Amino acid sequence: MSTVVRSTTKMISPFLVTYAAYIMLYGHLSPGGGFQGGVILAVAVILLITSHGYKKVRKRFKFNWASLIESSAGAMLVLLGIAGIAFGAFYSNFLPMEGGVIVPFNVIVGLEVGAAFTFVFYILLRWVESD
Amino acid sequence: MRVIALLLTLALGAFLLGLSYSPSYGGSYTYYVTNWGEIGIPNLVSAILAGWRAYDSLGEASLLFTAVIGFYLLLGGKKK
Predict the structure, then answer these.
(1) Domain ranges of chain A
(2) Do the interacting molecules here have an ipTM over 0.85?
């Protein structure tokens, strides 16, 4: 795409990652949460792909990282619930801070959702470009 | 054909307008509104979604995970 689009997306996408981190970490205090933060996290990568092309972005954001983050976040989500069994119930609120287990829960769900959308976009692009 | 579609749309609209939209009291609604202090966070939506219904969010995440596995199985292999 043109120079304007490329430099604008380069400038915007770090702030999108920061905004996604804010939405995930403060999801228990203000509107937001894991799913919304994860979608914004995925949009930061998808913007770079649409402006710079898949071949350039693939060198920095590896395809295998997305699948690794996706599967490990899914496993950690279940482990967080199982860790609650030691304190009484599945997903019991055992951390002694404000919000307790909700903060790591939001962060893990955000990582999972962001990695999932990036992964699906990568797979569709690989399919389209392999023709 | 167009007349039938118009009639069906009007019938659906009349049906939706005829429903009762007053909020129902009792049940889970009253429980959530009166007891949401026990989660300890100042956000009712997050208290319901990640506090009482974290199990639902786990199901949602596993749904997305299943969708990703389906994409990978269908389109992720070596191209012919």
Answers:
(1) 3-129
(2) no
